[in-house]
Amino acid sequence: MLNEENKDNMEDLYEIKARLKQEIAKRIQLENELNIALDELNLSNTEYLFAIRKLEGYKDSLNTAYNRAEFYKDLCSHDINNILQAILSGMQLCEMNLDDPHEIKSIIKIITDQVIRGANLISNIRKLSQIEGTKISLKRTKIRNILKKSVDYIKKSYTDKKINIKVDSVSEQLYIQANELISDVFENILINAIKHNKSAILEIEVMISREQKLGVNYLRFEFQDNGLGISDPRKEKIFQRGYSKNKTAQGMGLGLSLVKKIIENYKGEIWVEDRVIGDYSKGSNFVLLIPEVN
Amino acid sequence: MAGIAENGEEAINMFKSFSNKPKIILMDHRMPEKTGIEATKEILQIDKRVKIIFLSADVSIKEEAYAIGAFSFSEKPFTIKYLINEINKALECYKFSSSN
């Protein structure tokens, strides 16, 4: 009797065991399926994060492109219209003064200057897009020769003014990694020193020395002038013309923002100080730091 | 009474220095030290009768110029004839507001 009962119990137990086995097998299969789903989810999540990062990158590029487009739009609508205004007024004034050749001659000079201004603007835009569009190649450049050429060019361009340009250098054999745009840097700074100067004799002193900063060997260029100077609130603004939203940053045209971009491309720095500390009206000192190479 | 200022700050100081205030100011906007908008605000606080004609290539500040009390806004480039016409209109307006 007991044996019979035991036999029934055993059969029940076998049946339970078989069901449990089935259940375990189902659960293992389920777990495997869940793991696969989890892996897919993780993969999707990684892809999702990757896509988000990519989108953020596109957003930044889009913002840069938008700001660039706005900048060029501003250049066209503002600067070009200013130039056109001067040319239009000049032409109309010529028409009003047909019987005065002397007056016409001076107006034609103004018109010519405006055409040159327009050409310089276009040239600067081209250089800006060259810097930003591609990686420009730099080569070891002997800097004293380039500076001498820029000084000579400036002296020839302003023969109607009394200009003294003195260059004082720690050595003749000084090299930096640069390209042909370094001439634009020197010429822009020298032209500003002349244009914004009301002294009878324009004094410009260029000093080149060596400086070490955070373990990097730099050449320090200082362009000191006896011009009108730059007040403290304007010292940073003059370099800001460009993609900044500060449209009112009049600066000195596109020139100094171009200079800043070129210097940044050389991994250098540029800023302006008072020639006489604390008295900006005594003139400016434009300081450039550019890494020196052997 | 007439004068030429090279920036907004100079325009304000020049305006303050005139005992006999000018009736019309031809104002640019993008200038060093202070902009045309900033200078206009300060000048109109000194004498609200003066008629300020904005002459600018920056059309984005047109509405703001009118909102702060500019008499008119001329977008560059414009003809000399157009400018003379604007000056005449401003003078008429100045005379009219002074007589009332």
Explain how this protein is built.
The complex is a heterodimer of chains A (294) and B (100). In chain A, a hairpin with a 2-residue loop joins β7 (269-276) and β8 (279-293). Chain A has helices at 2-96, 101-133, 143-157, 182-195, 234-237, 255-265, and strands spanning 139-142, 163-169, 175-178, 202-213, 216-225, 251-254, 269-276, 279-293. With 294 residues, chain A is an alpha+beta fold. Chain A has 6 helices and 8 strands. The model of chain A is unreliable at 243-252 (pLDDT under 50). In chain A, strands 1, 2, 3, 4, 5, 7 and 8 form a 7-stranded mixed beta sheet that branches. Chain A has a domain at 138-293: Histidine kinase-like ATPase, C-terminal domain (Heat Shock Protein 90, 2-Layer Sandwich), CATH 3.30.565.10. Chain B has 100 residues and is of the alpha/beta class. Chain B has a single domain (8-99), classed as Response regulator (Rossmann fold, 3-Layer(aba) Sandwich), CATH 3.40.50. Chain B is built from 4 helices and 3 strands. Chain B has helices at residues 8-17, 36-46, 62-67, 80-99, and strands at residues 24-27, 51-56, 72-75. In chain B, α1 (8-17) runs parallel beside α2 (36-46). The mean pLDDT of chain B is 92. The chains are: A alpha+beta (294), B alpha/beta (100). The interface between A and B is medium-sized, with 19 and 17 residues.
